[in-house]
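Open question from group meeting: does this chain pack into something compact, or does most of it stay loose? Before anyone orders reagents, we agreed to write out a predicted structure and look at it together. Recording both the input and the output here so the notebook holds the full record.
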Amino acid sequence: MTRPSATPPEKNRLPANTAAGTVLLEVAAAGADGGSPPEMIKVTPVGQVETRDGRKYSFDPAMLSARFAKDGVDIPVDVDHGISKKAMWGERADAVGWVKELVARDDGLYARIEWLEAGREILSAKTHRYVSPTFRHNDLGEAQWLHSIALVAAPALALPAVAAANPAMETSMDTFKKIAAALGLGEAADEAACLSAIADLQASKVDNAVHDETLATLSATKTELTELKASIRDDEVETLIEGALKAKKIVPAQREQYVALCATDDGLAQVKALLEVTPEGLPGSGLDTKTPAGDDTEIDPAALAAEARTHMADLAAKGITISIAEAVAAVKEKRA
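Structure tokens returned:
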């Protein structure tokens, strides 16, 4: 953003006790002419600030200081937010200093910085005269924790905190929330929780060969189960239809039609229900236990011949003569 004019519009005026001009100048002046940069600098105002495009952010120095102490991780100082921007593209951005302590004061949050030689050289050259923190915030614009602090040439509205509140950071936070959701975590999940979830996924990753073998086994098992289910169905249908035929509930000519109706679970259930309410047919004739006429398969030839000869003798005694063939026929007719 461009440097604010001497008489900025009303919405660009700084809230009470959040002016950053003195702090910004202090960083540049202290590094000039070979002097040592200040060890303690102001990095955020206190309360709410508004950007030129109408976005609002608020800072609670006491909370931010407590969060820093709890995390126990030094915050890097970089140039032009390189660490927060380049890291997303896998590019390198080195720190030029490290925040060793955050202190909450009445007018804002102050950082005690351990400057590296690169940071001292930049401040001495006056190429980057201002500081601007990169911070994480919630949907209400409330800063939650500091990610890094940058040396910049043109901070937004001359407020260190507002420079980091840009669309790129908004997009980054939206992406971060989506990543957390994809990992099965809530939107409130922090970076550490996401990294832990990713590590768990890596640890549980299955080797491709094992994965393929498992899929093949599952496929074979599924095929076996399908075939077993089909075999059980066939047996069930066969028993059902044979029982219906025996009970004369259907006739043999209907068998194939009923089998076709039993091809699905729903069809089988409907056929069962239909046969349950179908009355049995006429009782059996008993013909299946009798030997059909003209069928000699069940007659003993020797017994038949002996009976025929006896019949011939009886008729001869009466003066009637017949041939053996006629006698056999007479015996068969009598048996029938």
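Observations to bring back to the group:
The chain has eleven helices and eight strands.
The longest strand covers residues 143-152.
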